[in-house]
Amino acid sequence: MTKKIYRIYNPGTEEYISEVHGMMRYEAYNKVDSAYAYDLQDALDILKHAKSMNKFIADNDEFPAKMREGCRQAPIIIPISINEVRISMDEATAAIDTAPTLGLSGEDAIRQARWRRVRRYKQYLHYNTRTPSHKYIYMHSYF
């Protein structure tokens, strides 16, 4: 994975766009598990999907007028720093607890936890529902 990461932002709706296994998510960046960060290739692919989705929404009268108006502006790719990726308190605590074992400072451990989250976002994007683990999780109502 490259050291540069990006988010896709829709200035018309002031929301970030993420994709999980083909499903587009438009959401504000107000919680840990929102506004996913991607490498450039994945961000460009999502941008292409987001532009076609925005065009569909803007041209379709079945959507509310406010939503259609917000989707008239094209989404953009924003480069971000790894420090802008949020992690949960549990992830931060686990990272700090394991830092001495790994010979890392607390700051380096937090940084690694943020990179783990970015790698998880990539897995969400390329998630395959045909894997045996998905079937197991689905059968046992964990998902």
Radius of gyration: 17 Å
Question: Percent of residues in beta strands?
Answer: 15-25%
Largest sheet: 4 strands, antiparallel
SSE succession: EEEHHEHHH
Structural class label = alpha+beta
**Total of helices:** 5
Order of strands across the main sheet = 3-2-1-4
Determine the fraction of residues in helical runs and give it as a percent range: 40-55%
* Unreliable spans: 136-143
Question: What is the arithmetic mean of pLDDT?
Answer: 84
Give the termini separation.
27 Å
What is the 3D shape?
elongated
- Annotation, overall tally of beta strands: 4
Walk me through this protein's architecture:
The protein is of the alpha+beta class. Helices cover 48% and strands 15% of the residues. It has 5 helices and 4 strands, in the order βββααβααα. Strands 3-2-1-4 form a 4-stranded antiparallel β-sheet. The longest helix is centred in the middle third of the chain and has 20 residues, at 40-59. The protein starts with a strand and ends with a helix.
What attributes characterize this protein structure?
5 helices; alpha+beta; 4 strands; elongated; 143 residues; 15% strand
Detail the topology: elements first, then pairings:
Elements: E1 5-10, E2 15-20, E3 23-27, H1 40-59, H2 65-70, E4 76-80, H3 89-102, H4 106-125, H5 132-139
Helix pairs in contact: 3-4
Compact description:
By secondary structure, the chain is α+β, with helices and mostly antiparallel strands. The chain has helices spanning 40-59, 65-70, 89-102, 106-125, 132-139, and strands at 5-10, 15-20, 23-27, 76-80. The protein contains five helices and four strands; from the N terminus they run βββααβααα.
